[in-house]
Amino acid sequence: MEKKRYRLSELAQLLDVTLKGNPNLIVEGVGPLETAGPTQITFLANPKYKAKLERCRAAAVIGDASLEDVGLPVLVSSNPYWTMAKAAQLFYSPPVLNPGIHASALISPEAFVAEDASVGPWVHVGPGASIGSGTRLYGHVYVGAGVTIGAQCLIYPHVTILDGCRLGNRVIIHSGTVIGSDGFGFAQDAEGRSTKIPQTGIVQIDDDVEIGANCTVDRATFGRTWIQEGVKIDNLVHIAHNVTIGRHSLLVAQVGIAGSVTLGNHVVLGGQVGIAGHVTVGDRVRIGAKSAISHSVEPGQDLLGIPAMPQKQWLRHYAAWLRLPRWQQELAALRDRVRSLEEALGRTSKPCKDAGHGNEC
Question: Which end of the chain has the least Cβ crowding within 10 Å, N or C?
Fold first, then answer.
């Protein structure tokens, strides 16, 4: 694989940032502040780490306009973390897979595979499927009948995309993920016996979506399960039938979303968040890790807890919970003082029982 190299002046142009320093320095990669070498560029996204620049060996640093006299050329960015990501993309190359179809792949004669697409060993592509330009299907990928995969997608080994599902351009799906499995749909009779509701819809995944390893995205009962443009999904996430996830939302590991949920745009779900069925979550809602959502949420809220509540309210509850042991001790001390006072007054109280709970009162 050819190593990618850029002059700092070229990087500044490609990243659309201003360069302060030697434009002819050659950079061959990106590294962290602590370990970046003389041919790498590093970044400073958080000012509290600025002191580390004194010992930094990097060729240059990506930072904001406040960085001056740090002894390194600076690529000045209003968002250093974003610029670092773009720089890393310039140096990144996906795992090697030559264009063409591997001899062991099973391609239906009724399927279309673009000439510059790459199909790895033991890949299956069903009838009526379409594989777009520059797309890579690594080994043991299964593509069902009628599946459409757009251009420049990366489908890693052991991904399964079942019949009729549609993927846009530049979609990335990591190993072990299943797209288009049946939704959990059953009807029960009077005796509690379950009968399957055929899941006849599809999954639609729009451009620039990335889905982590071992996720499951169920097909719709009818219609579509829809993951919209720019959504990023971590590993081990389950998305049930007929869910819609709005543009540029982020779902962290082990999120579980029940059927017919609608998420707005730019929603963020922390790890292990659970959402009950038929709930709507508004735009730009952020939900903390392990929270449970059982009702619809208005846009722009930050929620936390089980059941989820506004973050500030949850923090007040948590603070009170931490004080409970001290309050318990104080209550016991007050009870002792009252009893002592009553004894001193010569009228010791008779024990009584709380009829509801059996406590002394």
Answer: N
